Structure formats: structure tokens, C-alpha cells
Amino acid sequence: MSALWSVGAGLLLLLLWVRHRGLEAVLVHHRWVFVCFFLMPLSILFDIYYQLRAWAVRRLHSAPRQHAQRVRHIQEQVREWKKEGSKRYMCTGRPGWLTVSLRVGKYKKTHKNIMINLMDVLEVDSERQVVRVEPLVSMGQLTAHLNPMGWTIPVVPELDDLTVGGLIMGTGIESSSHIYGLFQHTCVAYELVLADGSLVRCTPTENSDLFYAVPWSCGTLGFLVAAEIKMIPAKKYVKIHYQPVRGLQKICEKFTEESKKKENSFVEGLMYSLDEAVIMTGVLTDEAEQSKINRIGNYYKPWFFKHVEKYLKADRTGVEYIPSRHYYHRHTRSIFWELQDIIPFGNNPVFRYLFGWMVPPKISLLKLTQGEAIRKLYEQHHVVQDMLVPMKSLEKSIQTFHVDLNVYPIWLCPFILPNNPGMVHPKGNETELYVDIGAYGEPKSKQFEARASMRQMEKFVRSVHGFQMLYADCYMTREEFWDMFDGSLYHKLREEMNCKDAFPEVYDKICKAARH
């Protein structure tokens, strides 16, 4: 009882302090207070609810039966929109703050919201090695469902809360992408409700134009209601090798060399400065040396990027065995390295042991509670960008990132880009090796100015025939945007399927120049 009184007294003092300082001042200058005392506990409740719901759905086997009913409800909403005269564009009714993207879509307030409550795993087909899922199934939910059955998917993008729909309509990548490509390249079928209310299935051989146009379209061709994704056998561990490398040229050479090796199940690089990096390669295995097993996903363990940095500081190589699911979500607890800016002491051993089980706070809740002051602060003094460039341009790209942004660590993730139709493909006629360069944090470049600096970056990426991930802030003009992306198939289908009155163009939905 005395413990409850202590907690109550502590919360009362905290509320009085917040009232004295002002809520906005606390949120801007002491955000960790709000995150630790409110958002982290609330995030736990969110997780418990969704885990219980997923468990109940599995036990009752209700997902497939209810799926058809839910899809019919979506079709009814679209037909009702048509009866009303198609006066407004349509969009999903999911609140903008629930998405992992830092952008909060203002269009939700003006467009017709179509409610899409599709968040279940529908079917695991072991014979075809395919899993059929609804669009709001998250990566954490999917791996938790498949791993006990001995399966996983070839590309498991990092963060637990990333959804299948977001990864298809946007894009997704993982350190296995040098073998399998982007998330879209592991999908074998999509099911969509179109602007006329019809339900269509598309594959590489059936409605193939639509199949290749859907990725990167950001929901502007139809509403995704299901997807089929390839599965591969899961193994217990990832045997990971850490290799510190110094000198930019050597880093690029080593990273390119390892990315071309198909025997590597995983390849990843973390750059801690312009000329210091750790290159990691991993192999799936069922056997492990017990003394070298590192359950890096346990709540009390150091954040992964800090753990990797130890090899650089000690200037030594190393080998570890990480349980597969821990490896797939190795950057989740620290949201890569973004959490260190929100909770500066988050990697402290005392904090990890006492409160690490509540980390990370939900990105959606961070967005919901950030307020206008923090949003503007982040927009001007913070960068979250993924640029996809040809591997042959890696060294020049890193130098450009250093001059324009100077943000470290930098994430390097290789991927193979096939010459398929659609918005994103290599310049030539053959498959090409690309790399995702991820910059997340506060730029240290003295001349950094959000709009000017990012437009400079976007210009460089276009010049090397690269691409910008569309979850992030995009400052391009419409002409520049369609210079970066191939819109030929996309525009053709929007015309054929009467999308122009139903959905905004992808540029109008995501680019700042169109929204301001």
C-alpha cells in the first residue's frame, strides 16, 4: 500500500511540475519525461491488446471467414461514395498518426475516409510456401505467427510496427535484400478494391500491369485488401560476423564485395563517421556455439548499434549467434538510433534493466503527442531519410551525405533491383545492385537548412538514377518527382481505371510542394 502511495505522490508532483513549466515547454525541452511516464506504459497496453486479439483470432480461426465480410463492407463504402457523386477523393480511414511515417497526412480531413479494418494473417500455405495476409498485419505480428511454424518471409523490414500494406504501397528493405530485392519483390499476388467497387486479384501473369504498378503508388490506384508473400524455412540463429573497416574507399569496396556474395544471408553496414564503419555479414543456421549466443532482443541488452560500435572501438572482428527473431528486429528497441534523441539515457544499464521492457514507445503515439512546436523543430533540425542509389555510386553518395547532412550513424543496406515494370527500376535493361543509405538524426552540417539541403540531396539522387523512399519529407517539384520515378505505367492505369476522380496522384499525396 505504501508503494502505491509513493507512486501516487510521485505522479502528483510530476503533474504539478508540468503545470508549473507548461505542457508545451515540457514536451519540447523535457520530452523524455512525457515519453517515460506516459507513452511507454501506454505503448505496453497497445501491445497487450493487439497480442490478445491476434491470439483470439488464431484460436477461433475466424480471420478467413470475417475477411470476405470486411471486404464486402469496403466495396459497399466505395459504391456509396459513387452514389454520392464522387465529389471528394477517397483514402483509407486509418488515422494519419497511426502510420510509421513521420508525415501526418492532412488529406485525411478533406477526403472521403474508407474504413479498412484488416489486420489478420489469413492463411499459411506450406505447399506453395506462401502466406496470405491482410494489409494491416505488422512485421512483429507476422514473424511471431510464422516462426513457431518453422517459416519466415525473405525480407523482414526492421521495425515491429511496419505493416504489409505500408511496405507494399510504399516500400520495405532488409539486410537480406541483396538476394531477394525489396519487400514488393517477395510478393506474388495482391487483392484490391478499385475505384468502381470491384474486387481484383493481380499477379505477374494475371492483371500484370496492375501488379507491377501497385508498389510505391501509396494507395492511389485502389485499396489493398490482401497480399500473398513468399515464405522461406526459418532457422534458429543468424551467425553474424562483425568487421571494422577504416577509410571510405575500403569501406565501399568491402561492402560491395560482401553484397555480391549470395552465400551471405544478410549484409549490413553501420558508418560511425566518414571513414569508420562496421560491415556485418550473417548466415542462417540451426547450430550455434553456446558461449557465443547473444539474445540481443532481450530488454536489458545494449541497443544493437551501440553493441556494434564496441567492435569498432576495440578494433577487432567478432562472431556471434543471434536468435533469428531477435536479429530481424535488432533495431526495433532503439528505433535504429532515434530513441537516443528522445531518451538520452535510454541505453544506460540501470534504465535498461528497470524500464527496458517498456521500450520502444510506439512511433504512432510519439507522432500523436508531438505537437506543432516539436513538429516544426524536427522538420528544421532533424532528418529521417532513406535514399536508394546504385552501388557503383556508393562512395560519391556517402561523401554527399557527409557534406549536406553530416548525420551519423548511417545505415547501409544492399538490395538487388530487377528490371520490372513500375515506378522503380534500374536505368538499363538488366537487374542492378543498389544500396539504401539511411540517415536518421540531427544534421551536424553547419550549412544545413531543411528545404535547401534536402532539395540538394534529391537533385544528387536523381543524377545517379536513385530513388527517395516516400515515407519521408520530399521537396521535389512535380517535374522533378516524375524525373526520378517512371510514371508511364502508373499514369496509364490511372486513366484506364478511372482513378483520377477517386484518388489523388501520388505526388499530391506525399510531396511538400503539393501540400503547402
UniProtKB/TrEMBL annotation:
Domain of life of the source: Eukaryota
GO cellular component terms, semicolon-separated: endoplasmic reticulum membrane; Golgi membrane
Annotated TM spans: 32-50
Pathway: Steroid biosynthesis; cholesterol biosynthesis
Topology of this chain in the membrane: Single-pass membrane protein
InterPro entries cross-referenced by the UniProt entry: Diminuto-like, FAD-bd_PCMH, FAD-bd_PCMH-like_sf, FAD-bd_PCMH_sub2, Oxid_FAD_bind_N
Location(s) in or outside the cell: Endoplasmic reticulum membrane; Golgi apparatus membrane
Cofactor dependency: FAD
Pfam entry (one): FAD_binding_4
Residue span, FAD-binding PCMH-type domain: 60-234
Catalysed reaction equations from the record: 5alpha-cholest-8-en-3beta-ol + NADP(+) = zymosterol + NADPH + H(+); lanosterol + NADPH + H(+) = 24,25-dihydrolanosterol + NADP(+)
GO molecular function, one term: Delta24-sterol reductase activity
Keyword terms of this UniProt record: Cholesterol metabolism, Endoplasmic reticulum, FAD, Flavoprotein, Golgi apparatus, Lipid biosynthesis, Lipid metabolism, Membrane, NADP, Oxidoreductase, Signal, Steroid metabolism, Sterol metabolism, Transmembrane, Transmembrane helix
E.C. numbers: 1.3.1.72
GO biological process, one term: cholesterol metabolic process
Keyword Secreted: no
Main location: endoplasmic reticulum
EC category name: oxidoreductase
UniProt similarity note: Belongs to the FAD-binding oxidoreductase/transferase type 4 family.
Function: Catalyzes the reduction of the delta-24 double bond of sterol intermediates during cholesterol biosynthesis. In addition to its cholesterol-synthesizing activity, can protect cells from oxidative stress by reducing caspase 3 activity during apoptosis induced by oxidative stress. Also protects against amyloid-beta peptide-induced apoptosis.
Protein name: Delta(24)-sterol reductase
Source organism of the structure: Sinosuthora webbiana
